[in-house]
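ok so for the tutorial part 2 we go from a plain amino acid sequence to predicted structure tokens. step 1 is just haveing the sequence, like this:
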Amino acid sequence: MRLSALLIVMTVSTMVWDSDVVSAQGFGLPGAGGNTAAASSGFPTTASPAAPASPNGQTAVQSLGQASGIATSVAADKTLPSSAGQTYRKYDLKPYTGHLNQVVRPEQAVVDWIIRETGSDAWFSPPFGFLNADHNTLSVYHTPEMHQVVGEVVEKFVAGDTEPQVLSVKVLNVGNPNWRNRAHLLMQHVGVDSPGVQAWLLSKENAAMVMNQLRQRTDTRIKHDLNLVLHNGQTQKLTSTLGKNYVRNMRPTPTGWPPYEPETGEIHVGYKVEISPLLSTDGKVIDCVIKAEIDQLDKLLPVDLELPLQNNQVHRAQIDVPQVVSWRLNERFRWPSDMILLLSCGVVASPDGNPASPMSFLNMGMLTGTTTGRADALMFIQFKGRASANLTHTGPVMQMATPQNPTSRGRY
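step 2 — the prediction. this is what the tokens look like for a chain of 412 residues:
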């Protein structure tokens, strides 16, 4: 009897607690597998089979907890918060995505650039709103002010140039940063938030003069001259990592001989670079997000150990302690497309040996394990226009991502 009474009390308590639960379905969000119908508020709601009525007269629907054997009921509500004047709008993405059949999820670039422009807090804090995109349509529920920002970003995609564009990237190392003495008056300084990074804008004529000055120096090493071919707004992602083994510990041998054996570890060094340019509709202004993550193994520091043996003897061994140098860049730049952006990453580790890949200028010696010396790393970024108008070039071409080349696909 006591056990039965206890079960009845627990069941009643669970029903009372569940009656206060509200799921996302209650706000008219599209459900899985249902047909979409227009509600009186103009917002699409999910049409579902009739559910039993709850005691308070509202319709009860099942939550996803039923899939795991725990059924809960929620009160359905077919209205969305609109205290800030939020409205629901759809934006047609087909003029842009229709040209990118070989790109995986091209609509993701539209979402990424909207979040870059508005910030993520606008979608996860009051007033209530949401952002969703598929291959053909962008669905937005937010305030009129936010729709204004979203519309401007979408216009750059759907009304911009749909042909592939060329972004030239030239990278070189200069042994001494005093190259600025002669080039200072030819460059316009640009503010940068990343520590140790400087940026300048140059006209094409001044950039040619600065490049000529650098070529005349004996401590200048041109690492690469690269042409990136990608569609407007899409992200080019280049990744290269390498694992390097080292002795991190000495542990007793299970067999007893030898008395100790090395325990190896692996440290992953390499780089991840993402470049995402977005042109204005008239092609006169370029937005570019540059993100780089570099982890470099500068050297392995040896440490001698004296490990105890029987008869008061010692076993001498050596372990390694990695000396790692990491560098991060995450910046967004906006400049006239007829000018050239010059970035200085500061005096960093200089690579030892020839570059092993098109982006080995960021390797900083990690493919060789150690570094030799330091150098000022410079990057020239120039927008060259349509790929069809730049058939002749001096550097190699990196194509945009396709399903067979997924290394170029990534999200910022």
